Amino acid sequence: MMKIAITGEGNTDYGKKEYGTGEWSPGPAIIYAEKIAKEQGMNVELLPIEKQDVMKVRVQGRSTKGLSGRGIPAKKFMILKNKNNCDAGIFYCDADKGTGTKSSNCSAVVKHYEEVYEEVKNGLSSDQAIPMIPLSMIECWMLGDKAALEQIFHLSISESKLPDKPEYVWGAKTDPDSDYPKNYFVRLIRSLDRRYGTYQSCQEDFNKIAEHSTISTLRKTCPLSYERFYTDFINLLKNVNK
Question: Whole-model pTM?
Fold first, then answer.
């Protein structure tokens, strides 16, 4: 079985350690990865490495020369990945800053995403580890599978309710009426039925959506960031399994 280290930003992406038991509760990022591995007929174990542990790693200045932004925590992650004798690694992060407050400027969003992707790639500096980065936030991947949303919330959702390009949904975080992905997602669910009038997003729902998602659908609806991860991960599985 291939052992793959994974880290993230919080419970709504890579999961959390359960209070009292210390057991890890996987988030949707882990579920997405497991689905792809299963599709490829690969048996993998995802080992979560907590963000706090990554941040605690000390590195010498010369070892981070040329790295910037998320490249430095990616470098630290690789140290822990190797320390835990993992065969491969996945570094999850959102590309959710530096893109302004509107989603209309797609070229600026893509440019920022590519910059973050390269930062992480440079920090990992290995063909045994890959970035996992939604174009903005993981909620955008959630919005990319209409059928999964309908199954989880037991509703029929009209196409007009969903964004044409879920990857590019973006807005001001502090404005609940904006297209900031978290705000957009919550507002969408609340608008679908009266019983969801006070709905708040949570890891449990995100996990269910990821579990019911279809890989082929997300490759079509999120053709930049999900497709990039899909392709990178398949190549990683093949390379490490040689």
Answer: 0.94
Which of 124, 127, 128 lies closest to 86 in space, CA to CA? 128
Which of the four pLDDT bands, split at 50, 70 and 90, describes residue 174?
confident
Read off the pLDDT band of 61 (50, 70, 90): confident
Contact in structure between 110 and 222 (CB atoms under 8 Å): no
Q: Which amino acid is at 81?
A: K
The span from the CA of 64 to the CA of 97, in Å, is: 22
Per residue in 86-98, pLDDT (tens digit) is: 999 999 999 875 5
